[in-house]
C-alpha cells in the first residue's frame, strides 16, 4: 500500500495524510530562488494539493532561518521548520525530510516502497485487503483479496484508522527502506496465520480500461486512479483506441490528484486546444492550455465523488466548463490551492501556499469543489451509463 505516514503528532497526521494521498501533491509554479527544479516548458513541474485558504505571515526565508538556526544548534532543522509552518495557519503547508520527499517524488513517478496491498475497513469493522499487486511481496506470499489484516509487526489493527494501518505497513523513517521486513497477521475464513514480507520498490498503473458491453458500439470505461507521470498519455492512448462512435465513461472517483501536467495532457484527449485552467502565483496570472487535435465529437461522461481532488478536479472543471462532458456523481472535494516547494538548510523541503487555480469559466475550486451536472451516489456508474446512452454513446 503506497502510504507514507511517519509521525502521529498533530502536524504529522496532516503530513501523513498528504503522503498517504501522495498524488495530491502541490501545484508548483515558476520557482523562486532556492526552489526545486521542475519539468514543464516553463521549467516548472505543476502539481496540486489541498491547503487552507487562510495562510499566516510565514515565508520561505522565515522557515529557512529557523531550520538554519536549529541545525547550528545541533537540532533538527526539519522539526524547527515544521513548527514554524504549524503556526502559520497554512493547514496543509508541509515540511518533509530528504527521505520523505524522495519517496514523495518517486510516488509521483508511479512507484513506491511497500508490500503491494491496498486495504479498507469493511462494513463489519475489519481491515480487509481490497487489492494485491501482481508479483509484489504480498502476492508472492499468498495474500489474497478479501483476506483480513489482523496485525502488523504484532500490533493489532482492528481499532486503528486505516491511515495508521498504512503507516505501520509503510514503516517509520528507519524501517521503510527497500528490503526491510514487516510481519503481517492475516485471517481467511477460520484460518489465521502470520507471514514475513520484505518491502520492495513497486510500480503503479493508474489507468485501466474496460468495455461495458459486448457490441462494437459498447461504451468504454477509463478509470484514472491518480495523475502520476505517464497517466495523461495513457488516457490519450486509451481514447485513441476506443472503436467507432462508442462513448467514454471517464471515472475520476477517488482520484486524489497528482501532476497537473498529466491532467492537462489527459484533457488534450477530449479538447482541440484551448484553456484548461488559470492560476495565480503571488498575484501573477498564468494559464494552462490543452494541445490541439483531441476527439471533440465522442460522447463523454465524467464520474466524480467526494474523493475527486485537485488535478482530477481541474480536469473535471475544464471538461464541464468547455461543454465537453456531462459530469455525474457527487460534489468533488475542493482542492484548488497553489503551493511551491523550496529546499531548506539540512536538505528538508517546505511547501507553502502561493495562490489558487480556477476553471476556464473562472470558478474557484478551493473549498467549494465542483457540483456535477447529474447527482448520484453509489449508483453513479449506472446513472452515468444511462446518461451516456442518451447521448448516443452506446450501452
From TrEMBL:
Gene3D superfamilies noted in UniProt: 2-enoyl-CoA Hydratase, Chain A, domain 1, 2.30.42.10, 3.30.750.44
Region annotation (Disordered) ranges: 360-395
UniProt-listed PROSITE patterns: PDZ
Domain of life where this protein originates: Bacteria
Source organism of the structure: [Kitasatospora] papulosa
A matching Pfam family: Peptidase_S41
Lineage: Bacteria, Bacillati, Actinomycetota, Actinomycetes, Kitasatosporales
Signal sequence residues: 1-30
SMART domains recorded: PDZ, TSPc
Residues of the PDZ domain: 101-170
Family label: Belongs to the peptidase S41A family.
Keywords, sorted A to Z: Hydrolase, Protease, Serine protease, Signal
Protein name: S41 family peptidase
Amino acid at each position: 500500500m503506497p502510504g507514507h505516514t511517519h509521525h502521529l503528532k498533530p502536524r504529522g497526521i496532516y503530513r501523513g495524510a498528504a503522503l498517504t494521498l501522495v498524488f495530491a501533491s502541490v501545484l508548483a509554479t515558476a520557482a523562486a530562488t532556492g526552489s526545486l527544479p521542475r519539468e514543464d516548458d516553463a521549467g516548472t513541474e505543476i502539481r496540486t494539493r489541498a491547503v487552507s485558504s487562510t495562510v499566516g505571515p510565514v515565508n520561505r526565508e522565515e522557515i529557512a532561518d529557523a531550520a538554519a538556526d536549529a541545525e547550528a544548534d545541533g537540532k533538527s532543522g526539519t522539526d524547527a521548520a515544521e513548527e514554524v509552518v504549524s503556526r502559520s495557519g497554512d493547514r496543509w503547508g508541509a515540511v518533509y525530510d530528504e527521505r520523505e520527499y524522495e519517496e514523495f517524488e518517486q510516488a509521483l513517478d508511479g512507484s513506491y516502497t511497500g508490500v503491494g496491498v491496498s486495504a479498507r475497513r469493511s462494513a463489519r469493522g475489519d481491515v480487509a485487503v481490497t487489492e494485491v499487486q501482481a508479483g509484489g511481496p504480498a502476492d508472492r506470499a499468498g495474500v489474497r483479496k478479501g483476506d483480513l489484516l489482523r496485525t502488523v509487526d504484532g500490533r493489532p489493527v482492528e481499532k486503528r484508522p486505516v491511515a495508521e494501518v498504512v503507516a505501520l505497513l509503510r514503516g517509520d523513517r528507519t524501517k521503510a527502506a527497500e528490503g526491510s521486513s514487516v510481519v503481517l497477521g492475516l485471517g481467511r475464513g477460520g484460518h489465521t496465520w502470520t507471514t514475513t514480507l520484505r518491502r520492495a520498490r513497486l510500480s503503479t498503473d493508474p489507468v485501466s480500461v474496460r468495455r461495458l458491453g459486448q457490441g462494437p458500439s459498447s461504451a468504454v470505461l477509463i478509470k484514472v486512479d491518480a495523475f502520476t507521470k505517464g497517466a495523461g498519455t495513457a488516457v490519450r492512448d486509451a481514447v485513441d483506441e476506443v472503436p467507432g462512435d462508442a462513448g467514454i465513461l471517464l471515472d475520476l472517483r477517488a482520484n486524489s490528484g497528482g501532476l497537473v501536467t498529466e491532467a492537462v495532457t489527459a484533457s488534450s484527449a477530449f479538447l482541440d486546444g484551448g484553456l484548461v485552467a488559470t492560476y495565480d502565483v503571488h498575484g501573477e496570472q498564468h494559464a494552462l492550455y490543452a494541445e490541439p487535435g483531441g476527439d471533440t465529437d465522442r460522447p463523454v461522461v465524467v464520474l466524480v465523488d467526494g474523493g475527486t481532488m485537485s488535478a482530477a478536479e481541474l480536469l473535471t472543471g475544464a471538461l464541464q466548463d468547455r461543454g465537453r462532458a456531462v459530469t455525474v456523481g457527487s460534489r468533488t472535494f475542493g482542492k484548488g490551492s497553489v503551493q511551491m516547494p523550496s529546499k531548506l538548510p539540512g536538505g528538508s523541503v517546505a511547501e507553502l501556499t502561493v495562490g489558487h487555480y480556477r476553471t476556464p469559466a473562472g470558478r474557484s475550486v478551493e473549498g467549494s469543489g465542483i457540483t456535477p451536472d447529474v447527482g448520484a451516489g453509489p449508483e453513479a456508474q449506472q446513472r452515468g451509463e444511462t446518461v451516456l446512452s442518451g447521448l448516443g454513446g452506446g450501452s
